[in-house]
Automatic annotation (TrEMBL):
GO molecular function: peptidase activity
Stored InterPro entries: C56_PfpI-like (IPR006286), Class_I_gatase-like (IPR029062), DJ-1/PfpI (IPR002818)
Transmembrane segments: none
Classification of source organism: Bacteria, Bacillati, Bacillota, Bacilli, Lactobacillales
NCBIfam families: PfpI
Name used for this protein in its record: Protease I
GO biological process terms held by the UniProt record: proteolysis
Similarity section: Belongs to the peptidase C56 family.
One of the Pfam families matching this protein, by short name: DJ-1_PfpI
DJ-1/PfpI domain ranges (all copies): 3-168
Length: 172
């Protein structure tokens, strides 16, 4: 049975950090639901290669509806972390120990949701400093899996390992 994956995303996300995990997850039989401020909004990746019509607005969803959370990188997480609704949504996944998949700048949202302390994680190099300062156990590896369910990767080059790890994490 496929799982429902909440994907929080807004303009200037890293195109391939959305499209590649989405493809891996849908090919494995899962449903990827995009969430932004308002259902029907159109958001565009920072490379301009990918346009997404948002499935659901943040006010119209509950973390209980989903089995996992995907946070693509780019400038999207930095924008979302200023919105308390996205912080509460993200924190609820961490509190429930549901899988959270985060790549590149994705951990910025997790840092502001205050859920990284003591967690083994990775990110793009410049966010690694932020993770350490927030109390995470930073590891410079292509994919890091924490026992809490957070799976993180650094950059688009790590996508093959990241995609394999997130699909395996959802296997029944």
């Amino acid at each position: 049975m496929g799982k429902k994956i909440a994907t929080v995303v807004t303009n200037l996300f890293e195109d391939v950090e959305f499209t590649s995990p989405k493809e891996a997850l849908t090919n494995a039989g899962h449903q990827v639901i995009t969430i932004e401020k308002k259902e029907g909004n159109t958001v565009t990746g920072k490379k301009g290669e990918t346009t997404i019509t948002i499935d659901k607005g943040i006010d119209d969803v509950s973390p209980e509806e989903f089995d996992a959370l995907l946070i693509p990188g780019g400038f999207s997480p930095d924008q979302l972390r200023s919105d308390d609704r996205f912080l509460a949504f993200t924190k609820a996944f961490a509190d429930a120990k549901k899988p959270i998949f985060s790549i590149c700048h994705g951990p910025q949202l997790l840092i502001n949701a205050e859920v990284v302390k003591g967690k083994k994680m990775t990110a793009v190099k410049q966010v690694g400093v932020d993770l350490k300062n927030a109390g995470a156990l930073f590891e410079d590896s292509e994919v890091v899996e924490d026992e809490s369910g957070i799976i993180s990767s650094r950059t688009p080059e790590d996508l093959p390992a990241f995609n394999k790890a997130i699909v395996n994490a959802l296997a029944d």
